[in-house]
Amino acid sequence: MSEFLSLPDLAVRTLGGSVIAASDESFEEKENLINPWAPAFHPETFGPKGQEYDGWETARRRPDAGGELGHDWAIVRLGLPGVVRGVVIDTAWFKGNFPPHASVEACAVEGHPSPAELAAAEWVEIVPRSPLEGDRAHHFEVAVRRRFTHVRLNMFPDGGIARLRVHGDVVPDPRLLTGLTVDLAALENGARVTACSNMFYSSPDNMLAPGAARNQAEGWETARRRDAGHDWAVVRLAAPGVIRLAEFDTVNLKFNAPAAVALWGVDERTADPDDKDAWVELMPRTRVQPDGRHRFRLEGLPEVTSVRVDIHPDGGLARLRLLGDLTPAGEEALFARWAELTA
């Protein structure tokens, strides 16, 4: 399995991605490319345009008057701009109508550009034109280390692609974060889960996603423990900061919420996170209830770079929010990364 698959999908709709333009979508809509669920297929489901597919499918191309065949394309606005580490082009269920080749380009454009403005942007090839097979997920590692806001999927010459996954590291715009109270644990601000005790049912990164969890699957849930221990997850904050308020959301977890939670922190610039004595208690073990939001104001905490959330003994969390202030060192780190990846 490709290592980049553990990174967030910067393009998925649930994280704010959008397919904003396509050359053609005669058979199936372009928006299907970034649906969060695995592609499905139901045989002999014929609509007015033919067999229905869970993906993007274009019409058969024919040469123009000049003999040119051309190719189809779709532009995706990344919900979370960042450095792309790998791309998945999935032709699931497209067996006789997949494109024989595809490529991916990327660009970085500030603000909220229109499709016409993006057409004039400077595009960089991040996946060269590569052969595809039908009904298969194709993994492509990306070596370009720059922050991008949009990608363009090209297929040669036409056909169907079920999903496009764009995995990478989130790089937020520091100009939108500095001087404000921010969620230091938000995925969209650059936070990530770096370790956890158990993710049997779902990934702990789900806790850091924007918006509210619509169901159990959109949070973090562990298997049932049969020992005296407890489950935990370590979150690397968006940047060094001081937490002022912690929110533990157990919405949708009615019979599998933890009985209690606790919060610990460490400054990895000055302490070894592998040393258990380096961790400082930020919030003691505190009772929580099922299916609800719990907010705790925290006073006098130290500057930290990572936190560990403990759930006793097991269960899950729908969302974790850690509101606080970036320290001067945190702001400096964000701007340094921004300068490096946008030069």
TrEMBL record:
Its EC number is 3.5.3.4. One of its GO terms (molecular function) is allantoicase activity. GO terms for biological process: allantoin catabolic process; purine nucleobase metabolic process. SUPFAM superfamilies: Galactose-binding domain-like. InterPro entries: Allantoicase, Allantoicase_dom, Galactose-bd-like_sf. Pathway: Nitrogen metabolism; (S)-allantoin degradation; (S)-ureidoglycolate from allantoate (aminidohydrolase route): step 1/1. It catalyses: allantoate + H2O = (S)-ureidoglycolate + urea. The keyword Iron-sulfur does not apply. Keywords: Hydrolase, Purine metabolism. The keyword Hydrolase applies. Residues 16-170, 190-325 form the Allantoicase domain. It is an enzyme of class 3 (hydrolase). Belongs to the allantoicase family. NCBIfam families: allantoicase. This is Probable allantoicase. It comes from Actinomadura namibiensis. The gene is alc.
